[in-house]
Amino acid sequence: MKQQITCFxxxxxxxxxxxxxxxxxxxxxxxxxxxxIYGKGAPxxxxxxxxxxxxxxxxxxxxxxxxxxxxxxxxxxxxxxxxDIDRPFSFEQDADDIAALLQYLHIPKxxxxxxxxxxxxxxxxxxxxxxxxxxxIVASAFYKKAGAYPWLWDFLAKGSFEGMPQPLKxxxxxxxxxxxxxxxxxxxxLHRMQHFQDxxxxxxxxxxxxxxxxxxxxxxxxxxxxxxMFRQIPGSRLMILPGGHGEYLGELLxxxxxxxxxxxxxPLVESFLN
Length: 274
Prior knowledge:
This protein is an alpha/beta fold. It has a single domain (about 1-274), classed as Alpha/Beta hydrolase fold, catalytic domain (Rossmann fold, 3-Layer(aba) Sandwich). The protein contains 11 helices and 8 strands. Helix 4 crosses helix 5 (about 115-130). The radius of gyration is 18 Å and the shape is globular.
């Protein structure tokens, strides 16, 4: 009975949080950026992974996070409902877009939570726009190529649109039914990662925002690199969790079919943010 009541309450909270969705577009640096807002409280920006949408990365934990935060979930350039435009496609540009979005929303400072490619963007926000950052959470991300396993770079070197996971294609087309936009998104992401440039260690060491580093013990980044970032960023915190790339967040591709209920990482994140 207790388990049934818990599940019932979770469904109610999930429905209530998702019903607050205020999807809209913001003009930022020539881009019409799609974003959604859930809940109330201190602002928390969520930045998805490469080739993903809001739901792919964050759909399972937004209801939990929205209980204590004003969650601002975005879709970056060429992802989901945010169209691609003719300009550079880089983590630096993404960081500038996040800063411009916060200015548009009249939010002077926010916590930033980025997964995978979104984690690279989060690092760049802290480096390029420290004035808009309160705390950052960098999940399953790296700042240099050596931080990922060699198999990742071999996989990307042979990357093709046909090899893009079908669940990612389906999730994209669900919110943007354009095959042309989907292919552009894939090609942009692939090219960026094939030509990934290491961030400067001096920039990483100069990050002033309180930082939490997350990764899975079977992630695309090595645990050693997570520890290295933990050592490089002054006063940072580190959590290495069981699972693959984003499994601890409920990321769509690595979500365990057996998982039910809340994700244990969320209370740990809440403890860091508070």
